[in-house]
Amino acid sequence: MKLLEYYVSLRLHQKENDYTDTMKITVQELADVLCCTERNIKILLKRMTAENWLTWKPGRGRGNTSTLTFHHDIRTGILEIFHQMLEKEDLNAAINLLKENLSEDIKEELHHTLNTYFGYQEKGPETAKDVLKIPMTRKLSTLDPAFVSVSSESHFARQIYDTLLQYDENEKRFDAHLAHDYDVSADGRTITFYLRKGVMFHNGKHMTSKDVRYTFQRLKDQNANSPCQWQTALVSDVRCMGPYTIQFFLKRKTRMFLHFVSSISMAVQPEDETELIGTGPFSVTEYREDVLVLEANTHYFKERAWLDRIEIWQIPQNSKVDLHYELPSSANEQAGEAVDLLQVGCNYITFNLNKDSIVHNWHFRDAIYQLFDIQLMIKELKKDKLLAATSLFPEKSIENPPAEKTLQQAAESLQATGYNGEILKVSFFDMKYSKEDAMWLKKRAESIGLNLMLHPFPLTEYYNEEVTADSDMIIMGEMFENNIVLAFINFFKHKASFVNRFLAGKEGEHVQRIVGLLMDEEDEEKQKKYMDEIEHDLHERRLVLNSYHTYRKKNFPASLKNVSMNTFGWADFRKIWIKPAVK
C-alpha cells in the first residue's frame, strides 16, 4: 500500500470508532488496523508527520498508549488526500476511496472533485499533449473486432483498427480506406481489392494481402466461433494475387459483401498477432481491468489524430460523473453548439422460443405487450430522456406513437393462456436503467397475478449463451451503427443478438427468409419495404416488443472543435481537437 492509502485507512478507522481528531491508541492496535508490523507503523507515522498530516506523540515504553492528533477534521483530511491522489494521477487509489464507507456529504464532494478530473487536459507546457479522459461505470467487454458487439466497445475498436473500405451512409457510397481501389467483375461474383502500400500495424509490421486473408479466415473459422461468422457464408474462396492485391470469390452476386468489408468485424489484423494490434489512428499502450489507454499513431497512413492520448477509466456505478468529451467547466468559457442525438435502434423485450414454455403462446406475449406500457413507465420513473418506441427507427416511432394499453387487456390475454402461476425468468444486464425497467415490469405483472423472477447478469457474460439459456424472456437494447441497413441485418444475423439467439422455429425461419431477401436487394426503397415488413411481422406476432429510444443532448464548449456524433453517441476521436486560448 502507498502512504496515502495507509492514511485513508487510519481516517476510516477513526470514523468507524467515533474517535475525535485526537486519538489515543497503542502501536500494536495501529499495526492491527493497518495490517503491518509495529516497526513499519513507526516508520509510517513518521512519514505522515513529515507530510504534516498528523502529529504523533509516542507512548513511553512497550504497549503504552500513543497520541495521534490529525491536523484536519475527517472531511477536510479525506478531501485533501483525494486531491493529492488525482494530482499524482493515482486514479486507482481515488476510485478505491470512493468505494469506502464514507458519509454521503463527503462522497458527494469526492464525486464532484472527480468530475473535474475527466474531460480534456493539456499536459506540458514544453511538450504539450492533448489528453482526453473518459469515465465508464462498467468493465469493458472484448475489443476484438471479430467479436465486438457492444456499442461503446465497437467505437473504441474503430479507433484501433481499420477496414478495407468505409461506408458513407449519407452519400450511400463506399470510400477507399486500407484498399485504395476495388473492382467488381461483370457477373458481380469476383471482387478485387488493391491495398495501399506502406500501411503499418502498431507493432511496426507492414500490412499485406496475407493479413487481409488471415482476417477473413479467422472470422470464418468454426473453432473461433465469431458472432459475425455469418458474413463469410457467401465467399467460396480468397486468393492473394500479390502482396497488395487480393480477390474474393462469391457464391452469388451481392453488393452486401462491400458492406461486410466496411464493418468492424472485418477490420484487418496482422497475420502473426491479433492482441489489440491494428493499423488505426490510435494504438493500445495500456489495457487493464480498470483502464484502457490509447496513444495517437504517429505512423498513421492518413491524417494524424489531433488528440495525443485517450484514457477510458472504469469508475464505481454510483459515481455522479457523466462527462465524455467536455472540457472542465470554466466561468469564462463560451458555450458551443449543442449536439442532439436520438438513438437509432431501441430497447426491447424478446422471448426465448428455444425453451418449451408458455412464451410460445401468442396470448402470453400479448399480455407482456399490454403490461409493458412504456409511456406510463417513462412518466412514473420520470425518464424524460426517453422516447416510447414502436419501431427500431425513431422517426417511425414519432410518426406512429404506441397504442393505448390497459391492465384489463393484459389480464384478459393472460387468462386466455391458461396460466397457472408458474414463474417466468426475465434476464437483463446488471445495470441501473435495465434494473429499473425490469422491476417496474415485475411490479406491474404482480397486479394481474403474473409471477416474474428477475435475473440480472453482467455485461462480461454477454457472449456466454449458457447464462441466459433458461430465460423465458429478456430485456435488451440494440443501438445501430451508421450503416443502417447492415445494422438492421446484424440485429437478426449476429450470433450475439438475442433476437438471433431466441427467435427459433417457424417464426425464426420466416423472419430469416425476409432478411435474406433484404440482403440481396440493392434498391433503397425496396430495402425499406423489407425492413417495414419484418418489423410489422414481429409486432403482429408479439415476438419483439419495442420499448424506447434514448434521447441524448450534449452541450460542448466553443473551444471543442470538429465534434460530430455517430449513432452510438460518440465523436470520432481522430477528428476532435481543442482550440487553445490565444492571449
Automatic annotation (TrEMBL):
InterPro entries attached to this UniProt entry: SBP_5, SBP_5_dom, SgrR_HTH_N
GO biological process: peptide transport
Transcriptional regulator SgrR N-terminal HTH domain residues: 2-114
Protein name (record): ABC transporter substrate-binding protein
Keyword Transmembrane helix: no
Superkingdom per UniProt: Bacteria
Any GO MF annotation of the entry: peptide transmembrane transporter activity
Pfam family, one: SgrR_N
Keyword annotations of the record: DNA-binding
Annotated Solute-binding protein family domain residues: 177-495
